[in-house]
Amino acid sequence: MKQEMTSADVAALVSELGNVDVEGSLIDAKIAKVYQPVPGEIRINLFIFGKGRDNLVIQAGKRAHMSKYLRPSPKLPHAFPMLLRKHITGGRITSVNQYDFDRIIEIGVIRGGIETILVCELFSRGNIVLLDSDRKIILPMNPVTFRGRRVRSGEIYEYPEAQLSPLDVEEAGMADLFAASTADVVRTIATSYNLGGVLAEEVCLRAGVDKKTAAKDATLDDIKALCESVKAVFSPIVEHKLKPCIVKKEIKGELGAIDVVPLELDQYSEAEKEYFPSFNQALDEFFGKKASEEVIEEVVAKKKEKVDVFERRLRKQQEAIKKFEKDSEKYTTIAEKIYEHYQNIEQVLAVLENARDKGYSWAEIRSILKKAKDDLPAARSIVSIDSAEGFVVVDLDGVNASINIRKTVPQNAQIYYDKAKKLSKKRDGALRAIEDTKVAMQKREKKVSKRRKAFFKKHWYDRFRWFFSSDGFLVVGGRDADTNEELVKKYMEKRDIVFHTQVPGAPITIIKTEGKDVPETTLEEAARFVVSYSSIWKAGQFSGDCYWIKPEQVSKTPESGEYLKKGSFVIRGERNYYKDVPVGVAVGLELGAETRVIGGPVSAIARSGKYVVELLPGKFNQNDIAKKVYRIYVDELKDPSFVKQVASPDSIARMLPPGESDIKK
């Protein structure tokens, strides 16, 4: 089964993602966030014009494609994606190219006039590397040093040793290559032209040349046919006349996917195939689906393995008791059999002692006993003799007993009684241990029942910025242009009050009045909210102006000749100003009927929240501040599991103002 993409796969994919005239192109796509769900893999969340949100998955050394099968993002982001975000978030993709028909994809990005290149190495031991416009390495996923090649920050990025491109194949070049080769035709083509095994076999098949022919024995006609075959195989990629499909064959009685190819291959003519409108979709169905299934299987396996420690201990103790009881019963039975066959065993011991007294060797004794089985009934019961340890094994009605020839019959029986007695004591000890385990389980259950429990509900306003005022009014604000638009069009009512700042870059904020009179305290808190979550905070200022209006004063109809961008509105009529409103935000935990992190004006959060942390404009970005607040909650509550459920760094970050902040001492 195919494990990674080939150079031809990369060429086909780039012909889709890097061609502005092809549906699914990434040219001009805007980069949102970057995630690293597992080592060696990143996921870039994109906004594609005319399509919306989508995700580009890149797994170093294996694959790259847009994907709907996404691995879950880690709760705490890794360093590499965080640093990538710093350089390319908000950037626009300007190019997607393949380097020299190798398994290398280069994604050009421009942000604020600064150009960077994201290099995706899909060959074995590949990497993901961010370069500046001078091709100097800004950041590698895995800093490594090879012979003659260093992939580390500050170094000039150097490509691995180049191979021949099948797109430039010529008869003279192939003839020289074959003359110097010690391998057969198919291996020589596969390695020298970077084709891989499947396409190399396809070239040989279409050329009518035996793939096992030694390369140096290939005729000029063979070379000519092979060159023509290479061009024929790759013409659909060059001309972008792809026919992407997943190839399926029966494996152990079931039909399974074995390969994904951008074009039809003669060697798969008899195989069942599933066709796709784009090679990108075929790659996702082949690689992406498999990766997501591996995650599900891994989770299921971990759940199966994650047996409770007390249950595991209890099971082992119960198994030990069964073994103690079984062995104790066996030893008691042997002791009783020894007494039942007292005379026979005594006779065997006497015969052995007499033979030893006469100076017979053990080999001679075994020979004598073998001959005496017809005349001496006791000899027939002997199974074996261990001369080194001085034991004889006798068969007592189907039960084997090991008898010490230096001890009497009663002494031998007592040995087995003592063993049985010892096991009975172990069994009693195990029974007491089981009771201790059950008591520990009960204590643990009581402890678990006393732990804080998280209670979650879904609300329509969760998608926005929000808080409940000191007077109990819901105040909701947009997060961006899209949510501003949605809030006004879908949730604003005539009886509501609308807030906005004097400067641009603020959320449309609405007090949901429900027809009630709104006290001044709520108006002031809404004013602080709209100022704090605006560009005023982002600029590091500590106060700003805002105003409130009625919903009917908000319009999407611009003045004649003017244009309103998404998320913007025209305000008409008289405005009610709040001047020089101080910024200030707090984050707290609501631990009542619902358990959740809340954020907003200090006075409102202090009224309904606990463990309140106040923030001011500062020097730390949202993610850093979120982690600091998270650690405060873990230290305060002494229950990391509960805090992670209720106030993860991601959920805290959603409550923070845009820009940089600091914790008020």
Automatic annotation (TrEMBL):
Report keywords, A-Z. Answer: Coiled coil, Protein biosynthesis, RNA-binding, rRNA-binding, tRNA-binding
User: Residue limits of the NFACT RNA-binding domain?
Assistant: 464-573
Is Transport included in the keywords of this UniProt record? no
Which biological processes are named by the entry's GO terms? rescue of stalled ribosome
According to its UniProt record, what is one Pfam family this protein matches?
NFACT_N
Cited HAMAP family: RqcH_A
Similarity section: Belongs to the NEMF family.
Q: What is this protein called?
A: Archaeal Rqc2 homolog aRqcH
Gene behind this protein = rqcH
